[in-house]
Specification:
4-stranded antiparallel β-sheet, 12 strands, alpha+beta
């Protein structure tokens, strides 16, 4: 159900450190990972003891002119993976300092294109917060982002306010798109090939000045060269390609593409083609949308785009170019439309609406046969996929998101309605079970990182609803969630996609993490954890911290905790050290703060880490007391007293691409 905005606040514009929360992380990370602790510790200058502070200060002071990002991959689809980069904490801090110096120039250079759909327009200053029951937050149409729900970090979801839209689909649902369809007969989509991997960092100077000036001033200070050096230094001093994932990379790319757009307009103007009369185009990051009256005009716009991109060493992926005539309805749009009709009919069979205080609350209807109800939806979706010669991967994320939203809305409705107006409990129980089972079916056939957040939100929301209102039926819900999670994990373990693509199974980790709240002492969960940890020697950062978190320090997992600690030490010992290597830096700070590893082991390792950072050793007593203080100030993983639902809300607000 909808909730009115109950608070409006202002962001402290001078708080440049908020950039480490908004602009330096990839979106595809485990639920428990964030920069909240990093931001808090930087802002409050903690830890405060001399030895702990010296260690952190040294770790954040690179010993070389570059740092090495933690590169990892997540599954993109059934056949490919998406490479991402988690940049070193010192590089993240350097980004914040760069923003404090040049945020106004970023807005100026990034907002010069008439065609861009997502450009930094100004520094964020305002946020809105909805009522505490609702899971959704109000986004102003102008693009101002919102504040995080969790009180631990008071910052908006993005450092900059962006023009027009935050996601590509918003453009296709807009009045502007309808106006363009009414005006032009042809719609063509263009895609830049391997965009971020192809960007040559020196071309930023070309975008804000010109090539000759850039080559004559390679060692000068100033906005372009400093931005160029920042992007190189965080990426192992690479000039070809920029880190994929952080928002700052999209900001960097936007400045370059803004100039490309301007050159396209000038090139076509020289050929007497008038923008907004003969043709138009829009661009969302690296995707171009061309509108024209005929194919010849669209071809000329395409050719100009190719030429201007080539001036920046960028190229179109011709295999992804598509052209359609009015009506502008793509194959994917038709599939989603058909799926939406099926899922709307599905919901109508067991979910209704009631009016409450000039608003609407969702309420459950009686469910007669759960299996039949779910089969009807699956059959309808299968028919749609067959008709359009596609697979579940085209529609599964959409269905999971829709079902997850209904779980939230039913939970909100239960809280908002009085006892006399509320349907009987059994209807809520049945409706929630139908939704959760449907979510697990469509997630299992196509697990993705983005959908994993919806699965986690649904399981936690339903568990809390049952615990607070139908406690006698909580075991029924928990047992089913555990069983469906086991089925999913077993299905993925039999699939070699992750191993073949060397991908980190973040989409699996994210549905395991809620098990700590849902069924922490369930033997099947312990068995699943043990099964998934049968090759700890291959684990990387995200897997290590996730399974340490899931262990909860319980005696049953003592051997696993020991193995995970040994693996973490091995990674740090084998690489360039925590002052240079991002994975080592994150592991060092998180493992030192982890209460599930004995203080003796952490203190001993702390002296080893100090040595790697060029610092002298401490006595046993001093090492233990220093590690104890670090434990009180978590960095990237909050090991205890964590509200997963609050964390999920925050991640939804921070989704930017």
């Amino acid at each position: 159900m909808r909730k009115k905005v109950i608070a409006k606040g202002n962001v402290r514009r001078g708080d440049f450190l908020r950039a480490v929360v908004t602009d330096t992380l990839p979106e595809e990370v485990p639920i428990i990972f964030s920069n909240d602790g990093f931001y808090h510790n930087l802002s409050k200058s903690v830890p405060q003891s001399a030895q702990a502070a010296l260690f952190v200060e040294t770790l954040l002071d690179p010993e070389r002119a570059y740092t090495k990002p933690y590169r990892y991959s997540v599954l993109k689809d059934a056949k490919s993976a998406r490479g991402l980069s988690l940049i070193h904490p010192s590089a993240q801090l350097a980004t914040a300092h760069f923003y404090s110096k040049y945020d106004s120039l970023i807005c100026y250079y990034g907002n010069r294109s008439e065609a861009s759909l997502r450009a930094p327009a100004k520094i964020g200053s305002t946020f809105f917060v909805r009522g505490p029951i609702s899971q959704r937050n109000h986004f102003r149409r102008s693009g101002i982002d919102t504040v995080t729900i969790d009180n631990s970090v008071s910052n908006p979801a993005s450092y900059f306010a962006y023009n027009k839209i935050s996601r590509a689909h918003e453009f296709f649902d807009s009045n502007e798109y309808l106006h363009l369809e009414k005006k032009y007969k042809i719609f063509r989509t263009l895609d830049v090939s391997k965009c971020f991997g192809s960007i040559y960092t020196h071309t930023l100077f070309w975008a804000v000045s010109d090539v000759q000036t850039a080559k004559d001033n390679t060692n000068s200070t100033g906005f372009a060269n400093e931005f160029d050096r920042l992007m190189q230094s965080m990426n192992y001093n690479e000039t070809n390609g920029i880190c994929v994932g952080p928002e700052i990379s999209r900001v960097f790319a936007e400045i370059i593409f803004s100039e490309v757009d301007r050159r396209i307009l000038r090139t076509l103007a020289d050929k007497n083609m008038i923008f907004r009369k003969d043709y138009e185009f829009r661009r969302y990051v690296d995707d171009y949308y061309v509108f024209a009256q005929d194919e010849a005009t669209a071809d000329r716009v395409t050719a100009a785009t190719q030429t201007c991109l080539a001036e920046f060493n960028l190229h179109l992926n011709e295999s992804k170019m598509s052209t359609i005539y009015r009506p502008f309805f793509t194959k994917k749009s038709q599939i989603i439309s058909d799926t939406n009709a099926s899922i709307t009919a599905f919901f109508a069979r067991f979910i209704g609406e009631v009016s409450i205080d000039d608003d609407v609350a969702l309420v459950p209807k009686r469910v007669l046969r759960t299996d039949s109800l779910i089969r009807s939806l699956v059959s309808a979706v299968k028919a749609t996929c067959l008709l359009h010669s596609t697979g579940y991967d085209t529609v599964s994320d959409y269905i999971v998101a829709a079902c997850s939203k209904r779980v939230t809305d039913l939970s909100d409705g239960f809280a908002a309605l009085g006892d006399s107006d509320r349907p009987e409990n059994e209807k809520y129980i049945s409706a929630i079970m139908v939704l959760i089972e449907t979510i697990y079916f469509f997630y299992t056939v196509n697990p993705t990182v983005r959908s994993s957040l919806n699965v986690a939100r649904s399981t936690i929301t339903s568990t809390r609803l049952f615990r607070e209102n139908f406690s006698d039926r909580l075991p029924y819900l928990s047992e089913n969630i555990v069983r469906w999670t086991l089925d999913l994990a077993n299905s993925i373990s039999r699939n070699s996609r992750h191993k073949d693509l060397t991908a980190i199974p973040v989409e699996v980790l994210n549905i395991l993490i809620p098990m700590r709240e849902i069924a922490r002492t369930e033997p099947l969960v312990d068995e699943l954890i043990s099964t998934m940890c049968n090759s700890v020697e291959t684990f990387e950062y995200f897997e290590i911290v996730t399974f340490l978190f899931l262990s909860g320090g319980r005696r049953e997992h003592r051997d696993l905790i020991r193995k995970l600690f040994i693996r973490a030490k091995q990674i740090v010992a084998d690489d360039l050290g925590p002052r240079v290597d991002s994975q080592s830096a994150h592991l060092a700070l998180d493992i030192l703060a982890c209460p599930y590893i004995t203080i003796e082991r952490r203190a001993s390792w702390f002296n080893n880490l100090r040595s790697r950072c060029g610092l002298g050793g401490l006595s046993v007593v001093d090492a233990r007391s220093t590690v104890q203080e670090i434990q009180h100030h978590p960095w990237f993983v909050r090991w205890d007293k964590i509200d997963l639902l609050s964390v999920l809300r925050k991640k939804e607000l921070s989704a930017v691409y």
